[in-house]
Amino acid sequence: LRLAPQDVPTSSSLLVSSFIAYATFSLAQGVIELSVARAMVAAMVDTLLLGTLSYFLLWARMHANRWMQTATALAGSGAIFEAMSLPFLVWQHQLDKQDPMALVPFLFTLALLFWFIVVIGHILRHALSTGLAVGAVLATLYMYLSLSVMSIIFFGVEPA
Predict the structure, then answer these.
(1) What is the pLDDT of residues 124-152, one digit of tens each?
(2) How far is it, in rounded angstroms, from Cα 47 to Cα 53?
(3) Do residues 58 and 127 touch, judged by C-beta distance below 8 A?
(4) Model's pTM, two decimal places?
(5) What element of type H or E holds 127?
(6) What is the Cα–Cα distance from 36 to 30, expressed in whole angstroms?
(7) DSSP letter assigned to residue 11
(8) CA 132, CA 122: separation in Å to the nearest integer?
(9) With contact defined as beta carbons under 8 Å apart, do 143 and 115 qualify?
(10) Which helix (H) or strand (E) element contains residue 71?
(11) What tens digit of pLDDT does each residue of 61-89 get?
(12) What angle do CA 143, 144, 150 make, to 5 degrees?
């Protein structure tokens, strides 16, 4: 939480690289539960949601000019968190759901998810010129919307 999105260079190649990394790790997570084809679609939808929702938020606050740096920061940090959670997701998937040890990788994944929400909130607070609480609420809403869309499209599950 030491750097802000405005510290990220404004670079289209860095933006594309960040989105590719984000989509790649999203795909890697997707193949744990889905076929490769469905995981590819899920990764594209997830990446599109990240870019579109971040642009919409910035546009609504009249800060659309900050999108490249913000999207680079969001996608880059997202790729890092997805990479960090991947071993725990694989571990959890290998265990029987009734196994009490399945709680261990779940708790690690949950901790990473909360940390990721704080990071997204930090990025959004700077990008939107608002407080961390507002950024964290927006990050939580983004995460809920993203998981809801994925659950509906790929698992046929309505969110609670």
Answers:
(1) 999 999 998 999 999 999 999 988 888 88
(2) 10
(3) yes
(4) 0.88
(5) helix 103-128
(6) 8
(7) -
(8) 6
(9) no
(10) helix 67-94
(11) 999 999 999 999 999 999 999 999 999 99
(12) 90
Tell me the C-alpha distance between 73 and 127, whole Å: 10
- Token code pair at residue 95: 């265990």
* Joined tokens for residue 8: 């990220």
Plot region of 90 (φ>0 → left; ψ -120 to 50 → alpha; else → beta):
alpha
**Chain centroid to CA 82: how far?**
8
DSSP states along 2-55: ---GGGS---HHHHHHHHHHHHHHHHHHHHHHS-HHHHHHHHHHHHHHHHHHHH
Question: What's at 111, amino acid-wise?
Answer: A
Which CA distances in Å does 67 have to 32, 43, 74, 82, 90? 31, 20, 10, 21, 33
pLDDT at residue 109 greater than cutoff 80: yes
Token pair 């997204």 is at which residue? 120
Amino acid at 109: T
Q: CA 120, CA 132: separation in Å to the nearest integer?
A: 10
Specify whether the CB–CB gap between 121 and 138 falls below 8 A: yes
Q: What end-to-end distance do the CA atoms of the chain give, in Å?
A: 31
56: Cα within 13 Å, side-chain hemisphere: 8
